[in-house]
Design brief:
Elements (H helix, E strand, L loop, with lengths): L5 H13 L5 E12 L5 E11 L1 H14 L4 E8 L8 E11 L15
Length: about 110
């Protein structure tokens, strides 16, 4: 789950994951925070990357395994006959945000 600044957290975590993947990251585009019906928050964003079909599939699989509470909202893959097997992909994902912890301490009970 995301903690702290959502975009900075996502950039750090996805950069670490991308180091282990054969896909080429083209860009990370911030989305926004939203509330779910259950009261939790999520942060959505778009990831642009390229690779072969197999590399794209492996990256999506690893992304889902690394962030099991995430929700892939859309995935589009485009290519042409002259792209030599490498295709451009765009993935929209929503990641759950860790709830903020209460910083206030309850007052100590006074005894009379």
């Amino acid at each position: 789950m995301i903690s702290g600044d959502p975009f900075a957290w996502v950039v750090r975590e996805l950069s670490l994951l991308a180091e282990q993947e054969p896909v080429h990251m083209a860009g990370l585009h911030p989305g926004g925070k939203s509330e779910t019906k259950s009261g939790s928050s999520s942060y959505s964003m778009r990831i642009d990357f390229s690779g072969t079909y197999d590399q794209i599939g492996a990256y999506v699989r690893d992304l889902e395994n690394k962030f099991p509470t995430s929700e892939i909202q859309s995935l589009s893959i485009v290519g042409s006959p002259g792209d030599k097997g490498s295709h451009d992909a765009s993935l929209e994902i929503a990641l759950r945000v860790q709830p903020a912890r209460a910083t206030e301490k309850p007052e100590a009970k006074k005894t009379s």
